[in-house]
Structures are given as C-alpha cells and as structure tokens.
Write a structure and sequence with these properties.
It is a single chain. This protein is of the alpha+beta class and about 375 residues long. About 40% of the residues lie in helices and about 15% in strands. It has 12 helices and 10 strands. Strands 1, 2, 3, 4, 5, 6, 7, 8, 9 and 10 form a 10-stranded mixed sheet that branches. The mean pLDDT is about 90.
Length: about 375
C-alpha cells in the first residue's frame, strides 16, 4: 500500500523543480524563436554533413513556416484500426497468445452508417513456431516483442483492407493509425531473421497504400522526439552563437513548437533520416509535421507520395476536424481503441471459457500458485 503522506515533502520539492525547469526552458527558447523568424531561407544552408551524427531530419519546407488550418472537404471517409493482445502466460500450462484488431470507418458528410468492428484471433504458440526458422534455438521465438510486432503488422493489414473496401470515387479517404509509421519497434525483435521478415512485410503493406492511392497518416500524441530541435541548432548556429544561446539539453520538438505554433497551425514538413527507412521504397519515405491541437503538439507522419500528390492540406484539415470532435484527440482513433481493447472483465471471461472447453476435451488447465492467488484476490 502506498503511503502518500510519507512522500508529500518529496513531491512538493519535485513540483518546484518542474516549475523552475519550465521557466528556464521558456527563457532559453525565446532567442531561438527570434533567430528563426529572422532567417526565412534556412533550407539553402542545409547540408547532410551538418547533422551527420545527429538524429535530425531533412527540411522539406522552410523550418520557419507556419501553415494555418485549411478548409476540410464537405464529405470524406475516415478509416482507422487499433489492436490489443493477451500475451503468452508462463504461469499457465497452455501456450498461446491472442490479438484483437478493430476496424473503424466513418463516412463524414454522408448518410452512410459507420462501421465499428473488431476481430479476435487465437494463436497456438507451438503450432505457430513450426513455420519459423530460428537462428538460435535457445532464444524464445514468441516473445512479447514478437507479439507486439505481429499486432502492429495486423493493424496495418486491417487498415489497408478497410480503406480498400470503403473507398468511394466522390469522397477523399484518409486511413489513420496511432503511432509511428517508422518501424523502430522491430529493432528490439530477435533473432535477425524474424526482424527481416517482419520488416519486409511491413514495407510491402505500406507500398500497397501507395499503389491504391489510399492516403495514409499516423498520429503521435505527446511525442518526445528532438529531431527538429537538433536540426535548428545546426542551421541557426551562427545566430545562436552571436546571441550566446544554446538549446536546453532536455528540450524536445513538442515543447519547442508549443510556443511557436497557434491552435490549428502546422509546422513545416520534414523528412525523417531514420536508419530504419533504408528498407523503404523512396516514395514511401516518412515525412512529418507538428500540429497544434489546442491541447498538445502532435506529430503527424505520412509517406512521401502523399506530399508529392499534394494531399497535405487534406490530411491537416481532416485530422484537426476529427480531433476537435474527439475533444483533443482524434475521435476515430478513440473509437478504434474502444473496439480493440480487451477489458480485464473480458479477459477473465475468456479464461473461464478456455477452462470449460479444455475440461470438455479432457485437458486440465493449471495455473501457477502465484497466478492463482492473484486471481482469487481479484474476486
């Protein structure tokens, strides 16, 4: 049991330190804003050698750019997916995992009814592993990283299928997913053969959106990247030196743009230089901008081909309208999450059903003593 009164003094001191750091950041950012406003042609300065050893993007538009909110089309289609999972449980003598993937389609400005679905799939770990060829048999194949990677792959696959079926010639369509389109999550996956296989399939799915001209974007809430800050620090070096300014070490892009953009505005567009993109088709290279939602600074990612086909105003206007309806977070993604999440009561019901079916087949489902004590404590 947490004794809050015992740490109240520590919490008070911590709150004061947070306030002081925020004030210091605000003080040090101001000169950077001034330098940026007086340098409207920074793209011409950019050389990759300037940021070769930094996590920094390529400026596609002038970094000082602010773009106001465009007009949203009168009618459009929004698609989204999300997923949840039940991981393999080492405290149970049944080796499986479960994925639950939602599929959401909203027809905006038309009388068509929305589609709200979810699809659950049970995976037998033993059976599933027969098709895998590990480099090292001592390493567990079906790890939590494996399950998460498969879930994200299935989310993208379901999104592609939903968007393909929901396409209408008259109305523009946006396929929306939560989180990044850059497959950073696969770096933690072992062995390497599995990482390569997942990457190949993920990149192929991204290419399918381009081939079918299905606009795709991802929404990242509360992003922690420092890419743009690193870029600006390099591009503004002469001005920053003259003004004796340095970016605070713990300043991220979201904090920077929170004071630079107004509600509804987007930043300039940048191209990611992530090492993971070496596997992507050049047309699927990931671009991004930051959007002031009124509540937070969100990072919006999309493939390069969407920029080439001049879809950015559509993505900007559609996303902002959707997050306004959702009270600060895209309504479509909220509904996708609600349809996908496996609640604790549903999970308990699932295990009771599994127990009954195993009993009917003559197999006794056993829990470890530790797991059983936790289940009893919940009742």
């Amino acid at each position: 049991m947490l004794q809050l009164h015992a740490i109240q003094s520590n919490l008070s001191d911590f709150a004061a330190r947070l306030r002081d750091r925020a004030l210091e950041k605000k003080r040090t950012i101001a000169p950077i804003y001034d330098a940026l406003r007086t340098q409207p042609h920074l793209c011409s300065r950019y050389e990759e050698s300037m940021v070769l050893h930094k996590v920094a993007p390529i400026p596609i538009e002038e970094p000082a750019l602010k773009k106001g909110l465009p007009e949203r089309p009168a009618s459009l289609t929004l698609c989204a997916t999300d997923g949840s999972q039940i991981f393999p449980d080492r405290h149970l003598n049944a080796d499986f995992f479960l994925l639950n993937i939602s599929r959401i389609v909203f027809y905006i400005g038309t009388p068509q009814k929305p589609i709200l679905q979810s699809c659950a799939q049970l995976y037998d770990v033993y059976q599933f592993e027969q098709d895998l060829t590990p480099e090292n048999e001592d390493e567990p194949l079906i790890s939590s990283e494996f399950v998460s990677a498969l879930r994200q792959e299935e989310e993208l696959r379901h999104l592609l299928d939903a968007a393909s079926h929901a396409r209408q010639e008259k109305n523009p369509l946006l396929a929306l997913i939560d989180g990044t389109l850059i497959c950073w999550h696969l770096k933690r996956l072992k062995p390497q053969t599995l990482q390569d296989a997942f990457t190949e399939r993920y990149v192929k799915l991204l290419g399918e959106f381009r081939q079918q001209y299905l606009a795709l974007a991802s929404y990242i809430s509360f992003p922690s990247s420092k890419e743009v800050v690193n870029l600006l620090q390099a591009l503004l070096r002469p001005e920053m030196t003259a003004a004796q300014v340095e970016c605070p070490k713990n300043l991220d892009d979201a904090e920077f743009f929170a004071g630079y953009l107004s509600k509804g505005e987007r930043s300039a567009i940048f191209a990611s230089r992530s090492e993971s993109l070496k596997y992507y088709d050049e047309s699927d290279r990931i671009y991004f901008f930051y959007l002031h939602t009124g509540r937070e600074i969100a990072r919006i990612e999309f493939p390069k081909w969407c920029y080439d086909l001049d879809m950015i105003d559509f993505i900007h206007a559609t996303l902002f309208d959707d997050l306004e309806k959702g009270g600060g977070y895209p309504m479509t993604l909220t509904e996708a999450h609600e349809q996908a999440v496996v609640k604790s009561s549903e999970q308990e019901e699932f295990y009771r059903l599994l127990e009954r079916l195993c009993m009917a087949k003559g197999y006794r489902l056993n829990y470890s003593a530790k797991s059983l004590s936790k289940r009893i404590a919940k009742l």
